[in-house]
Request: fold
Amino acid sequence: MKTGYSIKTWKMRLFCPEKQMIKTTEALYREAVAFYYVLLKEREELCAENLLTIQGHLEKLTVSGRDGREPKYIPPGGKLPVYFRRSAMNKAAMAVKTAASAESFPEKIDANITFFKGMYKDLTDTSVVLKLWNGKKWIWVLCGLTGRPFPKEAAILSPTLVHEEKWLMFHVPVKQENSDARAAKERMQEGARVCSVRFTNTDSFAVCTVLDEGSRQLAVKNCRGGNAYRHHCRALLKKVEASRAFTDKDNVSQPNRKYYMHLKHLNEHYAHQVSKEIMDFCKENQTGILVLPEYDEDFSRISMYRSGNYSPLHLSIRIRNYLKYKAWAEGILVLELRADGTEKQCSICGATGKKQGSVFICQNGHQVNRFLNGARNLGRKCQESFRKNNKPS
Ligand SMILES: [Zn+2]
Reply:
């Protein structure tokens, strides 16, 4: 299973109302980098250490300690803000490492400012606040940004100020998890089996089916226990209600804590049980990819509201999360795919149809459990989306 991260640089244009302050800050930064660079050059044995260790040594040499330690060397400007100097130390350390491996130390090094946390704040797609040096003091300055918006759910790393011709650019490293879809494509090409899931609000927490690469159904699994779960929860909620009358006026922070803890454990217990059943089913049938249904936000909100807080469907949120990490541990890829339309089609012949109670009946008379019908269609929809992408253009 492929895991890990990729880092891309987001290049944005920066508009700073204080051009002069950018200049003085950059000048101070270059001085600082040169200062640390010289210190390190004289201590070549440090080059082999990691950046953090090097930083520690430089701090000892240049910053006074709480224990009254006097620094041997004073950095430019006397005292530099902690994240400003650490950024400069890192830059100098990397320059020395590079120089050491090339066995030639340049006289001067060119350094663009990298803003560590603490030197910038409120970074959005359209603006950032930078801590700049005006020659006398540090000032927070709001700057504009233009460029494509950051990807969702990505980690933003320390940005660097770069001059490109007459423009001021803000290079922002963006760390993203490797796309599962890319890995899934490879698995599909290798003929991986797909397990698709449909969560329900009945006695079945989930109905699952395994399809082979030709979309033929190999196995079906029904994870029951929804009614028992609902029953347990109701009994506990009644106790909560009953105890409220006695504890409401008490000066207690969580009067029904005992029962709420029971409820929490009940949720965890059932979510573990169901996710384990699904994982076992996947393993028994050598599934490479697990497909979970995704709905649009409004639909999810409404159906969750209707099904209530302690319902099998509501528990699917937790089951889904457990499935994600359990599948990961088993080397099974999880994909979430929009389930729109998967209920309205017959999974046997593709014709439209309608539900009657728990059964889906198509125009051609096929009858299938409606949840199984939805699960099968979801699995096929997933397989088809990959086939489409693989067609030679
Ligand atoms: Zn049919």
